[in-house]
Amino acid sequence: MTPKLTLAGVVLGTDDVPGLTAFYRRLLGWRQGADEPEWATLRPPDGGTGLSFQFEAHHTRPTWPAGPGDQQMMVHLDIHVDDLDTAGAHATAAGATLADFQPQAGVRVYLDPSGHPFCLFTV
């Protein structure tokens, strides 16, 4: 019999927990849970899977898109939006950078302040 398993959160490693937490709080508008120098959490207002940030002393920014020998992303966030232009402007105002490489229409790849790629999409 399979036990009940519930995904409680996604954890992003960073060398700047307070900075990355503040970025995603601005981007998503979620409330802060734990707030420690090396560990912080954000929780969505309607419950569900949260986002956490863990201090990594040797954090290396991923390269997007990665080539041979580059630090590759290990995870990325997909964020559904109703309007790419409006959401993109909001992401940039929050501190994101639009990635140079964009793989497909209807999706825009941004980089958070620690270099993690995330996608805004409408499709």
TrEMBL record:
One annotated GO molecular function: lyase activity
Keyword Oxidoreductase: yes
Keywords: Dioxygenase, Lyase, Oxidoreductase
SUPFAM superfamilies reported for this sequence: Glyoxalase/Bleomycin resistance protein/Dihydroxybiphenyl dioxygenase
Domain of life assignment: Bacteria
Record's keyword annotation contains Transmembrane helix: no
Gene3D superfamilies: 2,3-Dihydroxybiphenyl 1,2-Dioxygenase, domain 1
Limits of the VOC domain: 6-123
Protein name as catalogued: Catechol 2,3-dioxygenase-like lactoylglutathione lyase family enzyme
